[in-house]
Amino acid sequence: MKKNKILIINLVLLFILISVYLYTMGYRLTEVEAAKVHLGVGKNAQLFEQVNYKWGTVCLFNTPKGPRTAIAEKYMFLWKTRVAFHMTNSQDLIKTVGWANNEKCTVYAVESTDDNLAYIEMGSGSDRIKIYSEENEPMIFQWSKPIRWNDFNGIAYSKNGEAIYEFRYPKGNVLNISEIRWFPIK
Predict the structure, then answer these.
(1) Which UniProt keywords apply (predicted)?
(2) pLDDT, tens digit, for every residue of 57-85?
(3) One-character DSSP codes across 49-109
(4) Which of 43, 47, 74, 137 has the fewest CB atoms within 10 Å distance of its CB?
């Protein structure tokens, strides 16, 4: 009887130690909690969209420091976020509000305040996706594989089918990732 008590106490202590270790390492019970623990996101982040995969979830947030995107991966019954991406705040009529990729997925989110925008197409070949613009709703593009930014081939179209914006770097020799955005087609 005394040996059983000691065994139970030891098992409880071991469970507590493992739980404390996993908690301090950023593991959480939900994907959103795990994403908010990441230093790049923060506890005050407001989730506005999430994209679920079998292996994990891409969470898109608004934060006081601008849009953030985090990839939360599932480990048995726990979640951990190892990487988060940030976008710069922009006053553009079409702006990137989320972007994440790894070896398993690519997620890209865009918002528009341009009343003339009808839809955006992104991707190449069989990976090309067309999403129609809805007022106050982000357009979420998702692929179950990595897509490089230069393969996005993003084109935004007006209500009369005319190409009005393209996703690219500014003309010239600019290679700063913060400069890639939606530019008007003139």
Answers:
(1) Membrane, Transmembrane, Transmembrane helix
(2) 999 999 998 999 999 999 999 999 999 99
(3) EEEE-SSEEEEEEEETTEEEEEEEEEETTEEEEEEEEE------SEEEEEEEE-SS-EEEE
(4) 43
> Whole-prediction pTM value?
0.87
Three-state SS at 133: coil
10-62: per-residue pLDDT in tens? 888 888 898 888 888 889 999 999 999 998 999 999 999 999 999 999 999 99
Q: What SS3 state is found at 111?
A: strand
Q: Rounded CA gap, 121 and 156, in Å?
A: 6
Cβ neighbours of residue 130 closer than 8 Å, sequence gap 6 or more: 119, 120, 121
Instruction: Using DSSP, state whether 134 is helix, strand or coil.
Output: coil
d(CA 37, CA 23): 10
- In angstroms, the CA 12 to CA 32 distance is 28
